[in-house]
Amino acid sequence: MDSNKEHLLENGNLKGTSSNEEEVHHGMTARQLSSSSLQNKSVPTLLPISVQNGKVRKVLINFQVVLLGTKLSVLLPTIPLSFVAVYCGFGKAWVFSMSLLGLTLLAERVSFLTEQVAYYTGPTVGGLLNATFGNATELIIAISALSQNKLRLLKYSLLGSVLSNLLLVLGTSLFCGGLANLRSEQKFERRQAHVNSLLLMLGAFCHMLPMLLQYAGDSTVKEGQILELSRALSIIMLLSYATYLFFQLWTHRTFFESLEESNDDEDDDVAVVGFWSGFVWLFVVTITTAWLSEYVVGTIEDASKSWGLSVSFLSLILVPILGNAAEHAGSIIFALKNKLDISLGVSLGSATQIAMFVVPSCVVVAWIMGINMDINFNLIETVSLALAVITTSIALQDGTSHYVKGLVLILCYIVIGICFFIFETPMDDDETKRMNMHWRLKPWMKE
To answer: pTM, whole model, 2 decimals?
Structure first.
């Protein structure tokens, strides 16, 4: 067998061929299609020809495909450099930078490995796997912040992920897609966008009620009541997301079939990683992600002081952008190919998953851990979320797109970014309450 085909071997089959004993099925979601657009189609063959042992060759082939099979493999050195920076006592800002860049690669690899496992499980189980691991990076960072009792940082990172998907990712996709297809009208499936928009409106509604209850001016409202309301609303949000999965995977799958149809003209792909190998790699990557997330959460305040940027700006703007860079790039690539259904599936699907699954899950986990976490994101943050959802819903209501819509969404994101760059809120909840949630100007703004 030619050495340039060795990296395609898995379970005794060549990529592009199928075994008679086992038929591989897969159901690729929009997010998995986005990840596949960043795969390195020509992985360099680094496997020594002298290696003759079949099992050793398979292990080396898996190692090569998983770690080098993406265009983001240039970020691979940042993962060991993160550990080196910690154990050698480098500056906290360096640890934060290396860890965050490493998470960018790991987030893309989690999506890739989920896709590989989904090849063998079928669309239904594959969809459930995507629902579990689709936002694994955000969930792991959230749990890490929760374990360190940094609730404000947790809320900002989750809110930033929702805002970046709704405004930055979707806006950039519509803008680039509109410029690349000026002579043709870009259209997408409105039913899918409407379902996601409704869920996001429900999420914004649930976030606004605890905030309005706090600012209602009624002295009889106690903190415990806001916490109880948040926990009840979180359960409702989780139930609604479970209903959404049932709707998407069983009763109304035709609403989302356009994603598969829009990928028909692509090359037929088969799994390049075995079923059990995919699970093992998924476990290893998830553990590494958890480790780097601990570094990010533990050093973000020191990086804030070193760079002169507020923690709120770093956690709300910088961390979500770099953490989902691969997914964002894939969304833009499909928009350039006039495949907006996939781009919308990436941005709206990710925002829906974070708002309706990750956020309430964190509240429930905190409840189990004995930590009092609510879904009150405070005034300016909650208003930003509500306006982002409303603006996105209006932009997608007619089922067509052009570059002006994308530009407006991008400008909305820039406005929010400027707002959190100029102003900063304290990371300590007790200090926030003593200040009655008033924001503080940066020192250089007071001069």
So the answer is: 0.77
